[in-house]
Amino acid sequence: GWLNRMTQFKEKAGKDRERASVGLYSYPTLMAADILLYKATHVPVGEDQKQHLELTRDIAQKFNNDFGVGLFPLPEPLILGEAPRVMSLRDGKKKMSKSDPSEGSRINIRDTEEEISKKIKKAKTDAEAIPSSIEGLEERPEASNLIGIYAALSDKSVDQVCQEFGGKQFSIFKKDLIDLTISTLIPIGLEMDRLMSDTVYLDKILFNGSERARKIAAPTLEEVYDVVGFVKSKTI
Length: 236
What we know:
Number of domains: 2
Structural class: mainly alpha
Oligomer: single chain
């Protein structure tokens, strides 16, 4: 069925699909429910989530067709920025992931300056110099990944970064990437630490957010109950 075709499930479950958790298997369905419940028309996603959004569209279309209604819009993906899919620092063909057993494969939001510097210095590249145009990045996944990260953090296009560093070796480029990454992520990490220490404030945000979400979602849930013929809960 639809869930068996999900690329992320196949990649993470590997050859041992029968032992994969139901959470991993059903995650795309939960994502679809979160989107459809609020009748979202556009959803910002990374490239790796595009297939899940396509599943959401399939579910919405099937519901509308089966019940002869136009209840759910078919959401469109919004894939923004120069690095819609950040890859592993150790393998430019694998997605950067917190579940990767190698700590050096990723940069965490709360990494220290020393950790960021060490990881980028050890990031896999190739022996060639940086190309002067984006076309020169074809078939160079590690080079493309690092330049894409720099472009995203500096708010420049990949082509602009290639023009800026074209002809230079990655040993030079990495120094600038380290400085840029540190100046961008360290303030975010510090702010996260500050917020995490203020549990009263966080609880208030979560409560207010859940109340707002419930008010938006309740009418949609009521419509679904009416269309399907379910008995309504008193909490709706």
